[in-house]
Amino acid sequence: MLAMLGSIGTTMIILACALPTYNLWWPIFVVLFYILCPIPTLIAKRSQNADDGVRAPNAMFATIGIILSSFALPIVLARAGVIQWGAGILTVAGNVVAYTTILAYFFGFESNDSAMW
């Protein structure tokens, strides 16, 4: 199920770039946000220091900032006229599917010792 959701999200991002009416590859840069998204959470979960009460909110703040940036990028690009609004909407829809997949992974497989949240 996760692989199918990931494939659908990736397909929507690629369609936002490759369809002949859009034909610009700027929306593909949101993939960088997908790679960066879990890194603060993984770093905070792996640390076993006494200051975990400080690291968890900082990791959550960084993760939310990365997620909001990935939603803001296609909107800003469409608003500036760099890409068309259809490509921006496809990219935002791909973001929703991709982040749903990442969230399902963390709740499904990484929740064995998640006292951090």
TrEMBL record:
Chief site of localization: membrane
Domain of life, source organism: Eukaryota
Location within or outside the cell: Membrane
PANTHER family: LEPTIN RECEPTOR-RELATED, RH04491P
Pfam families the record matches: Vps55 (PF04133)
Family from the record: Belongs to the OB-RGRP/VPS55 family.
Topological relation to the membrane, as annotated: Multi-pass membrane protein
Membrane spanning residue stretches: 26-44, 56-77, 83-107
InterPro entries reported for this sequence: Vps55/LEPROT
Protein species of origin: Anopheles darlingi (Mosquito)
Gene Ontology biological process terms, A to Z: late endosome to vacuole transport via multivesicular body sorting pathway
Keywords tagged on the record: Membrane, Transmembrane, Transmembrane helix
GO cellular component terms attached to this protein's record: endosome; membrane
Name recorded for this polypeptide: Vacuolar protein sorting 55
